[in-house]
Design brief:
Blueprint: H1 2-23, H2 29-46, H3 48-62, H4 65-90, H5 94-126
Helix pairs in contact: 1-2, 3-4, 4-5
Length: 127
């Protein structure tokens, strides 16, 4: 809970500083927002081990551990590529942002390909 409050305070402080610096014409104001974004990302990553342990307990008790692991990897890739996309857009590089998003989508497809293959094999066996 305190991480959420700290993160919200950091975000609001960075926003106020950005508005003030941008109004004064400081060219490094965007860099401030990128730095705050990276700091918030690191803060969020620090909570991931607790989340993973909770999900592992649930998935082991239900017997769907492999599927949950795949879903967690896809979620992680989605969050990382989304944040990277936003940072690239904030820095004014639409081309790099699009490339990051495309790479994230390809990575997601690579993670899910073995599961799709198994589903297709199962469907062929049923026919």
């Amino acid at each position: 809970m305190s991480g959420i409050i700290f993160g919200a305070g950091l975000a609001l402080s960075a926003l106020v500083m950005y508005i003030l610096l941008d109004a004064m014409g400081y060219r490094g104001a965007r860099l401030l927002t990128v730095t705050a974004t990276v700091m918030l990302f690191v803060l969020a990553i620090s909570a991931v081990p607790q989340l993973i342990s909770s999900v592992e307990i649930i998935s082991e008790s239900t017997g769907i551990g492999d599927t949950v692991g795949c879903a967690m990897r896809i979620l992680g890739i989605g969050y990382v590529s989304g944040i990277s996309y936003d940072v690239a857009l904030d820095m004014g590089s639409k081309g790099l942002a699009s490339a990051v998003m495309m790479l994230g989508r390809v990575e997601m497809l690579l993670v899910i390909t073995p599961y799709v293959t198994e589903v297709v094999k199962l469907a062929v066996e049923l026919i």
